[in-house]
Amino acid sequence: MANSLMYKDKRFKVGDTLSIHYKIKEGDKERVQIFKGILIKIKGNTKENRMITVRRITKSGIGVERIIPFSSPNIGEMLLLKKSSYNKAKAYFLKNLSEQELRNKLYRTKTVKKTK
């Protein structure tokens, strides 16, 4: 599947909200930075060249995208915060939506009305 990937026996899909613990080396110190955002793209077809793009909105309303190589040794942990019902391969449309519109598109399940 082009819109999902496996990481340590967990399946992540495009549209899911992730928390990625990324190790950053500053001088001789190493710290862990947590990057929480929505998975908008999975690129690459083998495990060695696979990359993911995660997007989040800062408190000041600016969108930040981070491209993370999937085979990077700096990824400490990936957690699934929220499961999405989105089914397409790329989620570029998220860049133009407000916070409320984004929630409605990604996490609301469609209900079918029954007619008599």
CATH fold descriptor: SH3 type barrels
Low-confidence stretches: none
Radius of gyration based on Cα positions: 16 Å
Mean pLDDT: 79
Shape verdict: globular
Query: Can you count the helices?
Result: 1
Structure summary, number of beta strands: 7
SSE-based structural type: mainly beta
Please describe the biggest sheet, giving its number of strands, its sense, and whether it closes into a barrel.
Answer: 5 strands, antiparallel
Order of helices and strands: EEEEEEEH
- Summed up, the domain count is 1
CATH class: Mainly Beta
Q: Give the neighbour order of strands across the main sheet.
A: 6-5-4-3-7
Question: What's the end-to-end separation, in Å?
Answer: 38 Å
The proportion of strand residues reads: over 45%
Percentage of residues assigned to helices: under 10%
Level-2 CATH architecture: Roll
Could you explain how this protein is built, in words?
- The protein has one helix at residues 99-107, and strands at 4-7, 10-13, 17-26, 29-43, 51-57, 63-69, 75-82.
- It is mostly beta strands.
- The protein has a single domain (4-107), classed as SH3 type barrels.
- The strands form 2 sheets. Strands 6-5-4-3-7 form a 5-stranded antiparallel β-sheet, with no helix packed on it.
- A hairpin with a 2-residue loop joins β1 (4-7) and β2.
- The protein is globular.
